[in-house]
Amino acid sequence: MTKDNDKAPVSVIGLGRLGAALAAAFLANGHPTTVWNRTPAKAAPLAAKGATVAGSVAEAVAASPLVLIVVLDHAAARALLEPAADDLRGRTLLNVSSSAPDDIRALARWATGHGADYLDAAVMAVPQAIGTPDAQVLFSGSTTAFERYGEQLGILGSTRYLADDPGVAELYSLGLLSAAYGTLFGFVHGTALLDSAQVKPTEFLGLAVPWLNGMLAFLPALAGEIERGDYTGGESSLEINLQALEWIEAASRGAGVDPGFILPTLDLVRQRLTVAKPTDSVAGVFEVMRGNS
Ligand SMILES: NC(=O)c1ccc[n+]([C@@H]2O[C@H](COP(=O)([O-])OP(=O)(O)OC[C@H]3O[C@@H](n4cnc5c(N)ncnc54)[C@H](OP(=O)(O)O)[C@@H]3O)[C@@H](O)[C@H]2O)c1
Does the beta carbon of 41 sit less than 6 angstroms from any atom of ligand 1? Predict the structure, then answer.
């Protein structure tokens, strides 16, 4: 590998699956890369690719103006960085460790309190996709830091800066995961229902995929209704969805399938019906979720 001297140095603390992939991407793009990991053996494959292995977190922080931390969560990140806090001054800390948005905000306050510029990244990809456009990497936090390092970080995947509130990237990540979980666990529940009639999961899949693709086309209508706060005359009414949800519950119980997946949604629709008309849009459950009705 050839090293390009005008590429900015970067440090990566935490060499689990994701941290190792990020460090490898920087190395592959010619960035002088310093690495550190709690379990030192994980640094060896990166050292073989040209990484400098730091002897401590403080040494890794001191080695580069841009310091990535990619460990279990905010608490592990903070515990590792605490002894190196004074070395953070004047550097950019890019936290890639996932956590709840409020914990990310607290980590950001701590880092900026020690004179660092704080940027947060939420990686919406598996480590194998790092370095390809399939890896979506969402950023929030210091605008200055993203202006300075955005281009360099572009080697990691398709990057997008969202907001100066450091918790927002993680909030997007959790919102996207919530949308995915609804679909994934709903598919598993549907598979269990069909299994009661000896339909194989792969047979069900043949209808599920085009159906779900069609449902995605319904999202802009829902988003528009929620944004306008107008749930009259929507595309899918509360009453029709209540009926379908009750049938799913009954069919589940009848087939000996746990209806647990569907019950909270049924409850939300019933709550909404205490204040809304049966013909109003099902998108109005947003107001129940936000505690507005
Ligand atoms: N993998 C993914 O697909 C993916 C995608 C998006 C976001 N993320 C997020 O990225 C972060 C890292 O994920 P990963 O997949 O790389 O996890 P991983 O393979 O399990 O690696 C975890 C890393 O954190 C370190 N670590 C854990 N607890 C620690 C502690 N108390 N003190 C010091 N170091 C500690 C581990 O060190 P040791 O090697 O010494 O155990 C290792 O470097 C997580 O927050 C995860 O949610 C992961």
Answer: no
Could you tell me how many residues make up the chain?
Answer: 293
CATH T-level topology, domain 10-163: Rossmann fold (3.40.50)
For the chain, the structural domain boundaries read 10-163, 172-289
Looking from the CA of residue 39, the nearest atom of ligand 1 is 40
Any ligand 1 atom below 6 A from CB of 18: yes
What is the distance in A from the centroid of ligand 1 to the CA of 14? 7
pLDDT one-digit tens code per residue, 29-71: 999 999 999 999 999 999 999 999 999 999 999 999 999 999 9
DSSP 62-82: HH-SEEEE-SSSHHHHHHHHG
- Over the range 94-133, which residues count as b (16 or more CB within 10 Å of their CB) and which as e? bbbbbbebebbbbbbebbbebebbbbbbbbbbebebbbee
Residue 5 confidence (pLDDT): 53
For domain 172-289, the CATH superfamily is: N-(1-d-carboxylethyl)-l-norvaline Dehydrogenase; domain 2 (1.10.1040.10)
